[in-house]
Write a structure and sequence with these properties.
This protein has helices at residues 100-105, 120-133, 137-151, 165-171, 176-189, and strands at residues 2-17, 19-24, 34-44, 49-53, 59-65, 69-82, 153-154, 173-174, 194-201, 216-219, 222-229, 233-238, 243-244, 249-255, 264-269, 274-284, 299-302, 330-335. It is an alpha+beta fold and 338 residues long. It has a six-stranded antiparallel β-sheet with strand order 10-16-1-6-3-17, with no helix packed on it. The chain has a five-stranded mixed β-sheet with strand order 4-5-2-15-18, with no helix packed on it. Helix 2 crosses helix 5 (176-189). The longest helix has 15 residues, at 137-151. The N and C termini lie far apart (53 Å).
């Protein structure tokens, strides 16, 4: 399937802002199930964009605006081809999860961070799913996927960024980030390596994942999970809508949790308050038509054939600024002057 994606986030400030520094993670990756055809970033006011691949394998577009401004907008346009993802052909027993080579290869996806710090409640429900599935890794992963999808209610505004998974479980409601974090945490509590995925979903409704009737939808970024199956690879599942990840999903990148693949984060200098207006437009196309933004009006950057890899992994920040919408996954932190 051919999909064109336009991701745009606009900030407005109540007073003039003297500086803004930002990191954007919106570029679809290329892997065995999708291929990036074209990508560009546009910043208003015009700014130079420096692009690199971070330690998790995600493209980062970093840019700063040094002049005074009362508004900022960033637009990322991509064209990508997707295909159905294969299902597991192996049926390993849970004993395979304890192999030293398997653990060493996936150690970063077995631990905890602020979004996946499970407690006894999450561990208990995970053990119940394992008991129902028996000593079968794939069966346990699928049981967790079903549990999360049926025991959480999709309710925007029910949670905030940074909510603990124990609170998500007890509250019984949330958005796609919460579904993904809970599923990842349950898997890890059983010794199953799992990672959080950020991306886009071509649908009118995140909670159902239904294929839209038309060719264009206006949505927000989406999140799902991938679990490692010994001897096979990563099984991608979308617990928000109870689906196996397929050709309607467009992957941006993965990490331990939301903090590693937050689509847009940044800081601005000044006394102003900010408001954010984000939107993702996804268009299903059959032709070679690509979106283009006029170079005469805006500064843009094309995806290069090679980009530098980050020299070392930086610890993810713990953003403390105002968040307008959790589901949108955008944030800027204010730094006051004077």
């Amino acid at each position: 399937m051919r999909l064109d994606v336009r991701y745009r986030t606009a900030f407005e400030y109540s007073e003039r802002t003297s500086e803004s520094q930002n990191e954007l993670r919106a570029c679809p990756t290329t892997d065995a199930s999708q291929r990036l055809l074209d990508y560009r970033v546009t910043v208003e006011p015009g700014a130079r964009v420096f692009s690199y691949i971070d330690a998790w394998g995600t493209r980062v577009d970093a840019f700063g605006i040094r002049r005074h401004h009362t508004a900022m907008a960033v637009t990322a346009e991509a064209s990508v081809e997707t295909r159905p993802r294969p299902l597991p052909t192996a049926a390993p027993r849970t004993e395979a999860l304890k192999r030293g080579d398997f653990v060493d290869a996936h150690i970063e996806y077995l631990g905890r961070d602020r979004n996946t710090d499970w407690g006894p409640g999450v561990a208990e429900v995970a053990q119940r799913q394992l008991a129902l599935a028996g000593p079968d890794v794939v069966g346990a992963i699928l049981a967790i996927h079903r549990f999360v999808g049926t025991n959480l209610q999709y309710r925007p505004g029910a949670t905030d960024v940074g909510i603990g998974v124990e609170d998500v479980l007890s509250g019984g409601a949330g958005v796609c980030q919460d579904y993904a974090h809970l599923a990842v945490s349950m898997c890890r509590s059983l010794g199953v390596p799992a990672r959080y995925v950020s991306g886009y979903l071509f649908t009118d409704r995140d909670e159902t994942g239904e294929v839209p009737v038309g060719d264009t939808v206006y949505v927000q970024t989406h999140a799902w999970m991938e679990a490692a199956v010994p001897g096979w690879g990563w099984l991608a599942l979308d617990p928000t809508n109870g689906q196996v990840v397929g050709e309607h999903h467009v992957k941006i990148g993965h990490g331990r949790s939301y903090d590693d693949v937050q689509p847009l984060r940044g800081v601005f200098l000044g006394p102003a308050a900010s408001t954010v207006t984000p939107v993702v437009e996804i268009r299903r196309v059959d032709s070679a038509d690509l979106w283009r933004t006029s170079a005469d009006q805006q500064r843009s950057v094309h995806v290069p054939s090679e980009m530098p890899m980050a020299g070392r992994r930086a610890h993810p920040s713990n953003p403390a600024g105002p968040i307008q919408q959790q589901q949108v996954q955008q944030q800027q932190e204010r730094r006051r002057t004077g």
